[in-house]
Amino acid sequence: xMEGDSPSITHSDEYLLLETYCQKRKPSTSLGRSVCMxxxxxxxxxxxxxxxxxxRIVDSGLLDDDGxxxxxxxxxxxxxxxxxxxxxxxxLNDKIEKNHVLLGYLQSTFSYDFFEKLTTAFIKSxxxxxxxxxxxxxxxxxxxxVTSRLRALDLHPMNRVMGFGAQYLQKTFTPWVKQHGGWxxxxxxxxxxx
Length: 194
Description:
Layout: H1 7-10, H2 13-25, H3 40-59, H4 75-87, H5 92-98, H6 100-109, H7 112-126, H8 136-151, H9 158-172, H10 174-179, H11 183-186
Helix pairs in contact: 2-3, 2-8, 2-9, 3-8, 4-7, 7-8, 8-9
């Protein structure tokens, strides 16, 4: 079993919500198949409203072309990938495959540690005061978005990326979500808690 693929992760609320979100974000690939087929039915009914709200948050104009802050040894690679993730959308896979340096780096070093650094840099590029920011809705939505975009790449098994996304959510945001009554209540339209 690969890192990020444990049964406890793949059956977690975070993983199922990621699948539901991914289904809403990326309905099909160039092959005409759903990118997010595995288990989406199980999480879809329970998390459809939350996934829809996360989609609206990301689509509200969060992904502008701002500068990126990174603090790791791999800052250049992470910065390049974050810029591609912010701008590329559907042709992200093609752009990464054409950049042999990035492609080789992603194929050889994709681990949870790298995913965590990349996701944090992605969030910081949009919400510079992260992790002190009070707007957890935006931070969580961006975590879902970066996971969705990375999952669409043909570099690794999709469930590995999803496992990393669920693990990141559990580590970074699940305590806040639980404090606010769970995923549905934390994203209730009537609840203005950030």
